[in-house]
Amino acid sequence: MARILLVEDDPTMREIMKLYFEKSHDVSLAEDGLLAVKFMNEERFDIIVLDLILPKLSGDSVAQVANAKGIPVIMVTAKNSEADILNGLRIGALDYVTKPFSPKVLLAKVDNFLKRLSNSPKLPTIDIISRTLITKDARVALSPTETSLLSEMMKKPGKAFNRHKLMELVWGRKEVSKRIVDATVKNLRKKLKGTGMEIRTIVGIGYVLEIK
Predict the structure, then answer these.
(1) pLDDT per residue over 152-165, tens digit each?
(2) Same structural domain, 40 and 76
(3) pLDDT (tens digit, 9 = 90+) per residue, 9-35?
(4) Are 66 and 75 spatial neighbours (Cβ–Cβ below 8 Å)?
(5) CATH number for the domain including 134?
(6) What is the distance between the alpha carbons of residues 50 and 68, in angstroms, rounded to a whole number?
(7) One domain for residues 21 and 105
(8) Are 97 and 74 in contact (CB under 8 A)?
(9) Is 0.85 topped by the overall pTM?
């Protein structure tokens, strides 16, 4: 049974979603953004179903907190412009569901994601959609660039990658400074502490990922 946080300020919609979700999942409810963050700080959740238009703290801000904690988010909102949808996906949403919607379809989307997560290779692995590194003991939120770089290195653990190769794999033809590569690796090293993964520097050659 998965633990799901439903964040919705409309009491009728909140209760309708609860009725559908609580049949197969452990559900917590939050009617505003601050309460949602409080729950995230105190409890563990497998996924969050999040309205964007919330009192006290915006859904965007709640999504950013969830992303930092490595909690997947499905957004549910009346904001349905292309710009709104793209913004939701950019800040890490798994999916963007616009109102009005079918609670059955929303539940199916959540169940499909949870099934895919449970059937994923046993760790470590990266969920590209939610940009989350999943290990035996932790879930680590990654930036888009960190996701791309770590994904490439995880394909060949133990292989040394020089900066030029990483620039080609991650940034393609875009001109970037070598310092950007170094800064991304530095940030990843901090996030990988305690995960059993480490990026080492091989002087004169480049970087290598070791998985213990």
Answers:
(1) 999 888 899 999 99
(2) yes
(3) 999 999 999 999 998 899 999 999 999
(4) no
(5) 1.10.10.10
(6) 15
(7) yes
(8) yes
(9) no
